[in-house]
UniProtKB/TrEMBL annotation:
It is a single-pass type II membrane protein. Its EC number is 2.1.1.-. One of its GO terms (molecular function) is methyltransferase activity. GO terms for biological process: methylation. It comes from Mikania micrantha (bitter vine). The chain crosses the membrane at residues 20-37. This is Methyltransferase. Belongs to the methyltransferase superfamily. It is found in: Golgi apparatus membrane; Membrane.
């Protein structure tokens, strides 16, 4: 026995390779058995998601899952309390408190369509839809050089039953299959426009090569030609000694006019070359200059080339495209309009657009000449203005100034049967798209909305009262939405101004093609960009134009499925945020892009922010028009659902 035991533990036996392997195997099995028994005997609980029940792949009975772990003790029993306990859910109201008192709006089926469109985006946002190759657009023939499609539709205009009331100067747009399908050519020798403010006094002859106004109005100090430039001395038919002297006279007659404070937005009717509006800009007043495309057809084109806010418009048979109570002052100096015709229907249109407490300035021969015919016209004007409760507050020389009432008190005191009548209660004075003129007095809101705006510049950012009367889903959050839009555009335009160097781009005439509340225009003012902005509210959007005017800005209602009423080569920058995804269901986006090319100046820029599903199609169209394009990610990165397309129309 001793010899056997000695053998087992002898060094020779332990160093034998076979024996050593056997010992290692026995040790490994012993350790495995020990830890296995310990594991299955443990009362440790594992997370539920890691201990799911399973089923054998046979017909035998499934193994039952282990019983659920006991519920943890309440925090209070451990002496612990949560920092924040959610008591209820809902939305945050204007006071910052949670509320469940809200109304869910109607279901919008287009939301799912937009999500479906965006979900088809590939390779960093490019739509996988096959748009096909877009051929290069041809250049139009020379006859389209000054083409305004809805005002130059000769075929339709020639077939009008009557043009007695100016119907031939109103909009008559081409049929869809007859729209613009080419690139409007530049005049021979066209140059990059002269920068503002120098352009107020001179422009290149080759950019607007028309001498008719020089021949007709040169003696009235409107315009003259000096070699390769047109010169604008600043005069007009009724202010031959200059617009500044004329403006001083108006202010002296009525100090309450207070240019740049109470009077911020004006309308100049029959503006000539817009010297009235050009010199008002020095007094912090934005004056929108309007005139028809008549025998002096290029007067608006001269105004725009100078860098003065202007568009083609006419007092004829339809409402002008501006909201009620839009203008603090309306000016007519020898504007050749018979204000008293047809029961005063044209002056009643001025009354609709004139702000409560606003001023109407009339400089015309009936004011000061004593010829029988002219005196009869003055008496008719006095009679009509009295019946619509305008107060004649000053008459001096060739200028007469009336003030519109701030409320309905005078209207209610009129004798029964006095004409013109009041407009129907259901008439919307802000509904203007192809709406016929109405010979009636527009009621002022009992709330005073529109008439009680703050003075400039405070009104630019103060939420106006009429924000509450806009037809939109939100109610309590309107002011927050308004402020959020302003903040959004202030941040975006800060990037535009600095990254894209807008202050070095010779920017003067700017258009926001989907303006909403005017936040884009307000931001450019805050950033010190010396420009003016035409704020366009599409007919497919909520009509926010009254809010824009209450801010001290200008704008117009428009349908982008139709051409805009301005000359070719008008704007330096076109801004379009969310426009094409909105309008693509209503009209061909290439039609809108061709219209943008028509109204964009050579060396002008376009900025389009929209969903990925349409950005790349727009880029292809832009390239087919000869524009230089770049696509940028927005602040959310390359996988965001929207991008920025920038375009340049090089000369």
């Amino acid at each position: 026995m001793r010899s056997t035991t000695s053998y087992l533990f002898s060094s020779d036996h332990l160093t034998n390779p076979n024996t050593f392997i056997k010992i290692l195997l026995i040790s490994f099995l012993s350790l495995s058995l020990f830890f296995g028994v310990k594991h299955f005997s443990s009362d440790t609980n594992y997370p539920k998601q890691l201990s799911r029940p399973f089923q054998l792949a046979t017909n035998t009975t499934a193994v039952s899952p282990p019983p659920p772990p006991p519920a943890p003790p309440p925090l209070s029993s451990l002496g612990l309390e949560p920092d924040n306990v959610v008591e209820r859910t809902g939305i945050v109201d204007e006071n910052g408190a949670m509320t469940d008192n809200f109304v869910i709006g109607d279901y919008d089926s287009s939301l799912l369509e937009n999500v479906a469109n965006e979900s088809s985006v590939e390779r960093g946002g490019e739509s996988d839809q096959n748009w096909g190759k877009i051929e290069q657009f041809r250049v139009c023939d020379e006859s389209k050089r000054e083409y305004i499609p809805c005002l130059d539709n000769v075929d339709v205009i020639s077939r009008l039953n009557s043009s007695e009331k100016g119907e031939n100067y109103e909009r008559h747009c081409p049929a869809k299959d007859e729209g613009l399908d080419c690139l409007v050519p530049n005049p021979k020798g066209y140059k990059n426009h002269i920068p503002w403010p120098k352009s107020r006094d001179e422009v290149w002859y080759d950019n607007v090569p028309h001498t008719r106004l020089v021949e007709d109005k040169g003696g009235q100090n409107w315009i003259s030609r000096n070699k390769d430039k047109f010169i604008f001395p600043g005069g007009g038919t009724q202010f031959i000694h200059g617009a500044n002297q004329y403006l001083d006279q108006i202010h002296k007659m009525v100090p309450d006019v207070d240019f740049g404070q109470r009077v911020r937005v004006a309308l100049d009717v029959g503006c000539g070359v817009a010297s009235f509006g050009a010199f008002l800009l020095d007094r912090n007043v934005t004056s929108l200059s309007i005139a028809p495309k008549d025998v002096h057809e290029n007067q608006i084109q001269f105004a725009l080339e100078r860098g003065v806010p202007a568009m083609v418009a006419v007092f004829a048979t339809h409402r002008l495209l501006y909201p009620s109570q839009a203008f603090d002052l309306v000016h007519c100096s020898r504007c050749r309009i018979n204000w008293t015709r047809d029961d005063g229907i044209l002056l009643l249109e001025v009354n609709r657009m004139l702000r409560g407490g606003g001023y109407f300035v009339w400089a015309a021969q009936p004011v000061y000449k004593h010829e029988n015919v002219l005196q009869e016209q003055w008496k008719e004007m006095e009679n009509l203005t009295g019946r619509i409760c305008w107060e004649l507050i000053a008459k001096e020389g060739y200028i007469a100034i009336w003030r519109k009432p701030q409320n309905n008190t005078c209207y209610l005191a009129r004798n029964p049967g006095v004409k013109p009548p009041f407009c129907d209660a259901n008439d919307d004075p802000d509904n203007v798209w192809y709406i016929p003129l109405k010979a009636c007095i527009t009621w002022l809101p009992e709330s005073g909305y529109g008439a009680n705006v703050t003075t400039w510049p405070g009104r630019l950012h103060h939420p106006p009262d009429r924000l509450q009367s806009i037809k939109m889903d939100a109610f309590l959050s309107r002011n927050d939405i308004y402020k959020a839009e302003s903040k959004y555009w202030k941040e975006i335009t800060f990037s535009y101004v600095n990254v894209f160097r807008w202050k070095t781009l010779n920017v003067r005439n700017v258009m926001d093609m989907r303006a909403r509340y005017g936040g884009f225009a307000a931001a450019l003012h805050d950033h010190g960009v010396d420009c003016w902005v035409m704020n366009v509210v599409p007919v497919s959007d909520t009509n926010t134009l009254p809010v824009i005017y209450d801010r001290g800005l200008i704008g117009v209602v428009h349908d982008w499925c139709e051409p805009f009423d301005t000359y070719p080569r008008t704007y330096d920058i076109l801004n379009a945020a969310g426009l094409f995804s909105k309008e693509q269901k209503r009209c061909d986006v290439s039609t809108i892009m061709l219209e943008m090319n028509r109204i964009l100046r050579p060396n002008g820029h376009v900025y389009i922010r929209d969903v990925n599903s349409i950005i790349y199609k727009l880029e292809e169209i832009a390239k087919a028009m000869g524009w230089i394009t770049h696509v940028f990610d927005n602040g959310e990165g390359p996988n965001a659902g929207a991008k920025l397309l920038t375009c340049e129309k090089r000369l």
